[in-house]
Design a protein that fits this description.
This protein has 395 residues and is of the alpha/beta class. The protein is built from 15 helices and 14 strands. A hairpin with a 4-residue loop joins strand 1 and strand 2. It is globular.
């Protein structure tokens, strides 16, 4: 079976075509700047080792999906002869609210439930719906699946997901902790359990990238996670503030005469590593400037410190921890950050081997020999996870 995975942003579409069940990537690509005067698409036919780049105006997601389909069946860079060779389409959907605790076939009811979550995911869910509708129009007879960033976290207990605000806001608007990056957390946790040959281990997963979150997983179930109603809560991120005193928002709004939209933009797009450093939201740039720029050094220290605090908290939540896993762009590629996060935790059984840490890539452990807590780098593969769920629901 051939499974197409679609991940729509507000002005972009990422895609991969898999041969299942072996999860072999046949083609992949990224279309950016949808709706602008010039859009850019990079398509790779993996087996043919061929690449094609296009720069042209793509006015809508539907037009972009059609362009992607044309490339998949192209005589030169295509990998299938016709779209009839696609057996299912998996869509990444950021927010499923309380309606979905697992991936789901896309039906009219499912689309209505995704629409109902647009208020709490205004940047993400409308884009996901555009991709779903475009695919449905072009491929009306193909089964499609929605895979949600939030569904893995639906196992959190009530005392972990509720906020200490009047209950009426949960009853009326479903204001609660949902958590995100669930597809990634679930995938790397599964790989960790295989690596240590222990199903249903207790683990703390650190997904560290421009967006960052950390999850406590007890015997296969998410029991707490750092992101909340939206992806703004929790760790310091590339441009998001993470945890802060809620009164800061109203204080700054009053002092600067800002609207709610203005303040939301500051916390989501101008804060985090970028706001602290004044230089960049890219950890590679900050590491390069750490020794000469105080802002870069401070941003790195705050980033690592916040993660370390969460690790301590989640060790208390879990009681006993089999492993701590690092994934995402920073988690997988920065031994410096991993070292800073775990610094000083030897007394509680977390001891890293510096030489192993420097080399750790892909799926590799880096704790000291005999260490009480396993330390792992595991490369995430959300597209593969989406393809797997889609295959299971459409085969």
């Amino acid at each position: 079976m051939n499974i197409l995975v679609i991940n729509c942003g507000s002005s972009s579409i990422k895609y991969q075509l898999f041969a299942m069940p072996e999860a072999k990537v046949l083609a992949k690509g990224l279309l950016e700047k949808i709706g602008e005067e010039i859009s850019a698409l990079k398509h790779t036919a993996v087996e043919k080792n061929k690449e094609k780049k296009l720069e042209q105006k793509v006015a809508s997601h539907k037009e972009g999906i059609q362009l992607i389909f044309d490339l998949l069946t192209d005589s030169d860079v295509g990998v299938i002869s016709s779209m009839s060779e696609i057996n299912g389409v998996g869509h990444r959907v950021v927010h499923g609210g309380e309606a979905f605790n697992k991936s789901s076939l896309i039906t009219a009811d499912a689309i209505k439930a995704i629409e109902d979550c647009c208020d709490i995911a205004p940047l993400h869910n409308p884009a996901g719906l555009m991709g779903i509708r475009a695919c449905q129009e072009i491929l009306p007879n193909i089964k499609m699946v929605a895979v949600f960033d939030t569904s893995f976290h639906q196992t959190m207990p009530e005392h972990a997901y509720m906020y200490a605000i009047p209950r009426e806001y949960y009853d009326k608007y479903k204001v609660r902790r949902y958590g995100f990056h669930g597809t990634s957390h679930k995938y790397v946790y599964g790989e960790f359990c295989k690596a240590i040959n222990k199903p249903n281990a207790n683990a703390i997963v650190c997904h560290l990238g421009n967006g960052a979150s950390i999850t406590a997983i007890k015997e296969g179930k998410s029991v707490d996670t750092s992101m909340g109603l939206t992806p703004l809560e929790g760790l310091v991120m590339g441009t998001r503030s993470g945890d802060m005193d809620p009164a800061i928002s109203t204080f700054i709004m009053q002092k600067e005469n800002l609207s709610a939209k203005d303040m939301d933009n500051i916390m989501n797009k101008k804060s985090g590593l970028l706001g602290i450093s004044g230089i960049s939201n890219d950890m590679r740039n900050l590491e390069a400037a750490e020794s000469t720029e105080h802002g870069a050094a401070l941003a790195i220290k705050m980033f690592a410190y916040r993660i370390r605090k969460y690790i301590g908290a989640y060790m208390a939540v879990l009681g006993n921890v089999d492993g701590i896993i690092f994934t995402g762009g920073i988690g997988e590629n920065s031994p410096v950050i991993r070292g800073k996060v775990l610094e000083g935790l030897d007394a509680i059984g977390i001891e890293l081997d510096s030489a192993k840490n420097e080399k750790a890539r892909g799926c590799a452990n880096f704790e000291k020999d005999g260490g009480k807590v396993k330390l792992y780098v595991i490369a995430t593969d959300e597209e593969k996870a989406i393809a797997s769920d889609t295959y299971e629901l459409t085969k």
